[in-house]
Amino acid sequence: VIGVVIGKTDVRSFPDRKNIGTERFTFGFTIRDSPTYFINAQSWGREEYIKSLSESFRVGDCVTIENPLIQSKEAEREEKFNPVTPSAYKLLLSENHSVVKTSPCYNTDTRLLSLLHLPVKNPQDYYSLGDIVANG
């Protein structure tokens, strides 16, 4: 999967239920490869792996994701913690099987650069600042 990173979360940690006293780390990001299609990717793992992966790219970079696990998303649960996407799926990245490679978009596909500035919602699906000021 190749796309431009349009959003990214901070690294977070949670107590590991399987290994009491240890923590699992996670972070997520959203990639886009067309005007209408974008998808969330989530990675879980050891602190060193997650922090290193998170620091390896930023919003606006193009990434190639190799060997992600493609999983159906639980829409109601997913949308509490992740950006809403048009996809019924999410990408899960595994420390042992997945690879994320970063490259400047102009080296990968210059069309991806224009996707960075497109809104993710329909323009009729939100209020303008003028409407908010006028109507409270």
TrEMBL record:
It comes from the Eukaryota. Pfam families: OB_MEIOB_N. InterPro entries: MEIOB, NA-bd_OB-fold, OB_MEIOB_N. One of its GO terms (molecular function) is single-stranded DNA 3'-5' DNA exonuclease activity. Residues 1-121 form the MEIOB-like N-terminal domain. Keywords: DNA-binding, Meiosis. One of its GO terms (biological process) is resolution of meiotic recombination intermediates. Belongs to the MEIOB family. This is MEIOB protein. It comes from Acrocephalus arundinaceus (Great reed-warbler). The lineage of its organism: Eukaryota, Metazoa, Chordata, Craniata, Vertebrata. The gene is Meiob.
